[in-house]
Design the sequence.
């Protein structure tokens, strides 16, 4: 097993006892400088510096994953990739209502991070985290019907995008297009669980562009001050729509921003599922011990445009080729089958891929043949119907509610005192 690199800690300033560390799990630390060039009426980018010929590093061996778990994550990643390919084809056939957002190249980050959560913990995905939705129990047919606005979709055809969740059974908060807003929401989920006597991990995601929004700072600062179990995955996929990351912020690593909140910052290679899982596992364990939030920066490349309408012509082709060699699925397959572990034979891998294809074909056919919503159903859910806002504790009755119940039963009322959320 390759050892973790020793964290670097700057010397504290005179008269200060502060020390800061940012752990970096990566086995390679690519650094590229882009410059903007103008060709006629077109603006594009060129790689000005950085080693584009560097060899692909090995997968870092996980400290926590068993054989069965590693293979299961690999299967989720394959299903994620095949489902998005099917969605692209459905879009080209005119069966998708609206656009499609892809997580090509980010499957390892989405699937391995969600896999670190327990069933009773919470997640708030973003548009590229469809693999995380699969891990949390949604099926490919759910996601495909959602994009096709079919009546059997999670939103019953009322939304033709990724804005769906399940707060009753899967503990998934629906994403919102206003970037950063899920961060205070998931901090609130962690706070609600703690008020019910349970420390949980509440995971959500933000991109390198959305990470600079004001609500990101406010939500993360609140989680830090209140010591809440927020696990924030910053998916630094190098492009905020068509703007390269080094034109968005001045810090070298977005994990450095954790220092300002007084919480741990961790950097991982987002194309290495083992690194992602280990960092998320440790962050979730911290949350469960009541030790507060963690910021994890996953570095990788968005291998398609912002959405299906964006051809991403602004991305330098040599940079695209560099990251193609670091395909997270190909790397994990090589790790499991050929090189390090040999946990899968070639035959077993072929059987696993065939099983994924069978599942996806069945789900695709189900989604394509499912009906559109009836016109008269459009009014449903517009107004609050019976029980629409009923909120029940997930874990236990909060202490103040138990005290109120006691007072209502004749127990003497305790004296009121200031209450801090901690």
Sequence:
């Amino acid at each position: 097993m390759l050892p973790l690199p020793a964290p670097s800690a700057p010397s504290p300033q005179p008269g200060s006892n502060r020390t800061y560390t940012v752990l970096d799990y990566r086995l390679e630390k690519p650094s590229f400088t882009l410059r903007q060039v103008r060709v006629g009426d077109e603006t594009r980018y060129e790689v000005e510096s950085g080693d584009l010929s560097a060899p692909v590093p090995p997968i870092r061996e996980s400290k926590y994953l068993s054989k069965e778990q590693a293979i299961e994550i690999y299967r989720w990643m394959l299903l994620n990739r095949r489902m998005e390919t099917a969605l692209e084809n459905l879009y080209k056939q005119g069966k998708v209502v609206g656009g499609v957002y892809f997580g090509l190249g980010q499957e390892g980050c989405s699937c391995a991070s969600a896999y670190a959560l327990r069933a009773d913990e919470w997640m708030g995905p973003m548009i590229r985290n469809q693999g995380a939705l699969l891990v949390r129990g949604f099926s490919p047919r759910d996601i495909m019907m959602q994009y096709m606005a079919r009546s059997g979709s999670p939103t019953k055809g009322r939304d033709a995008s990724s804005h769906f969740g399940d707060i009753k059974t899967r503990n998934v908060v629906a994403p919102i297009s206003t970037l950063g807003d899920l961060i205070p929401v998931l901090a609130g989920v962690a706070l609600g669980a703690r008020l019910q006597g349970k420390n949980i991990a509440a995971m959500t995601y933000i991109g390198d562009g959305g990470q600079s929004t004001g609500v990101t700072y406010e939500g993360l600062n609140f989680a830090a001050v209140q010591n809440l179990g927020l696990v924030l995955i910053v998916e630094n996929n190098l492009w905020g729509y068509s703007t390269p990351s080094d034109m968005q912020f001045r810090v070298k690593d977005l994990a450095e921003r954790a220092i300002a909140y007084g919480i741990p910052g961790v950097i991982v290679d987002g194309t290495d599922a083992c690194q992602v899982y280990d960092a998320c596992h440790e962050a979730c364990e911290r949350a469960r011990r009541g030790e507060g939030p963690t910021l994890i920066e996953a570095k990788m490349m968005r291998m398609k445009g912002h959405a299906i309408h964006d051809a991403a012509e602004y991305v330098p082709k040599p940079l695209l080729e560099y990251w193609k060699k670091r395909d997270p699925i190909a790397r994990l397959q090589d790790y499991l089958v050929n090189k390090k572990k040999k946990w899968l034979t070639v035959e077993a891998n072929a059987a696993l891929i065939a099983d994924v294809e069978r599942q996806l074909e069945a789900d695709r056919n189900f989604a394509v043949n499912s009906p559109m919503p009836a016109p008269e159903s459009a009014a449903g859910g517009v107004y609050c119907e019976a029980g629409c806002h009923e909120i029940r504790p997930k874990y236990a009755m909060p202490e103040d509610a138990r005290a109120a119940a006691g007072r209502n039963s004749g127990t003497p009322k305790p004296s009121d005192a200031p209450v801090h959320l901690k």
Observations:
- The domain at 22-28+38-379 is CATH 3.40.50.970 (Rossmann fold).
- The longest strand covers residues 42-49.
- Confidence is low (pLDDT under 50) at residues 1-15.
- The chain has one domain: 22-28+38-379.
